[in-house]
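so i finally got all the pieces together for this one. its two components total, 565 residues if u count the protein bits. some of the lines might not be protein, just check the labels. i wanna see the whole assembly predicted at once instead of chain by chain like last time, that was a mess tbh
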Amino acid sequence: MVKELKAEVKKLNFYYGGVQALKEINLPIERRKVSALIGPSGCGKTTFLRCFNRMHDLYPHNRYEGEITLYPDNINIISPEIDPIEIRMQISMVFQKPNPFPKSIYENVAYGLRVRGTSKRAVLDEKVEKSLRGAALWDEVKDRLHHLAFDLSGGQQQRLCIARALATDPRILLFDEPTSALDPTATSKIEELIIQLKDEVTIIIVTHNMQQAARVSDYTAFMYLGEIVEYDKTDRIFTAPSNKLTEEYITGRFG
Amino acid sequence: MQKSKPELQTEIKKRIAVTKFWDKVFLITGLLSTLVGLVLLFTLMADLFVNGFPRLSYKFLTSFPSRFPEEAGILSAWVGSFLVLLVTALASIPLGIAAGIYLEEYARKNWLTDIIEINIANLAGVPSIVYGLLALGLFVNFFKFGESILTGGLALALLILPMVIMATREAIRAIPNSIREASYALGATKWQTVQSHIIPYSTGGILTGVIIGLSRAIGETAPIITVGALTFIAFLPTSPFSSEFPFISFKWLLDPFTVMPIQMFNWVSRPQHEFQLNAAAAGIVLMIMTLLMNGVAIYIRYRFRRKIKW
């Protein structure tokens, strides 16, 4: 089967002011697969992930170089000519700590649609249900859609954030260590969900948990000091890494 | 030389006793200091109540001032206070909130915004009479608003504007950045984020600041005297409602006025004892108004805090 790319990173450099955080990154992102970014703390995996939806544009003195091409339309995500809002409308993100809005469950999911100008009740109702089902949360919350999102447990809140990200039909879904604040049960639910979701959406996940990368991802990139050391199919990375550093990291000898 | 064990133990015990003694000394000093404040406040309130309470009546609230103390009331004063505060609120709330949001969410952090920040903090400490002088020059002499409710309200609005701005900024700063990022990540623009998250989630804090500002404004005398409020007024401002089209009139804005503290000051400065009692009664009303406003502020804070926990 021919590999189909959703995005391709070419010679990406990223700077926080004068500090270079990402160096010459090249990486293909396969369509409807899960790509995991692993590496020790401070290696730049989150910085890299946040390039995909231009989160760095929210803060001053950040600078990109190079290209992240989004297929099939061949636009360069990080081009200064492209409005970051246009990018964020197509590429959603789930954050490290569940961060629901202090609004109702319903309004949390509907917010992305409201931002896009959708206000018809019927459309919203349908989308909210579909997204909550997609995030495996519908059965737990269908009777209390208008309760505050803060009343949910941490794991439910994170699935709510996933539903919120799904509601806008993203082309890529970014996960930034989505389970690091959750207990094991909630974690395994999120992992199952990620595996299910890849049938519909391309996923990039940052994780510091190697077992998680092994469980959920199809491809894995190992990053160290702002560079990609090795990229391959996940089972190859974890069974027969070609780089010494990768091997040391996945066997737990450093990081 | 090594000390023997029992010797060491007695020494430790002595040490603890000395420390505990100082503990007690501080406890008593602290308690006394607190009591001084409480007792003074209580005496003040008791005195006010004993003197003023017998004068409080429906008639007192609905009568104009008079040269006969037993017929005098505070109708023009509380109506004046209310209308002045209305102008103050309408002017300071939008200005203060907009400035606070701009400084927190839009302005880049650089030396200019630092200077603005320091200046706003300083403005909050400027004596109120200085605001009165500013209002006299600006609103009375330059804009020709006259010695009116509008001028008085705007003078007080200037006075509490720094408080409203600072309350707004603090409330906004309490919103975690992860909420902003969540909103932006969904494709929201800055204004969408401000409108649907920043403003609603900071409303509790902002309103608390506004009400505390207003409850300070209601007791202010100096700036109001400076802009030329009258001390004796035996009529009400023009009614805001009229029987003819367009049924709403803004003429009251330019009417002369007095406020509660000025009415009290006027009565206190008279020789007759009966007028002093009137002043005490008006003081009770003013204090109840202030306490009510503070109560509302506390309630609002409570309501919003219950809904939002970061």
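Residues 63 and 73 of chain B are 4 Å apart (CA to CA).
Chain B has a mean pLDDT of 89.
anyway lmk what u think
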